[in-house]
Write the structure tokens for this entry.
Amino acid sequence: MVTPGSKFTRKKEEAIAALLTQRNVEEAARAAGVGTQTLLRWLKVPEFVKEYRKARREAVHQAIARLQQATGAAATIVLKLMNDPNVPAAARLQPENQESRQSESPTPKNIFYVPCPQCGENEKPAPCTYCGGSGFVEILRY
């Protein structure tokens, strides 16, 4: 995480890891084995804040990548459960009803977004006739 020769200690690295996994500063301090006031003081040190933000940014990027990888499978499962007549009605997933929001406008009752069959698999979709480059296609149900 930190280059050799820096003043960053193992405790500070543990504190950063704890800040990323615990609910609040107090719990992070306890998990890292330092006092709450010590951790609060470290959070005012520019080098510590820089490393904490870097670690947090990496964690967020990894989480987003995992969500992106699972999106296609999740959409497939949701659509199968929603449309499967063998799934009990109480367990069937229901999309948001657009009628409740805009009862006066002639909009579809339900709108679903699924990955575009032409370009939805690409990381940077090119404009296409299906989705216009958004990577998703609306499925309307009246």
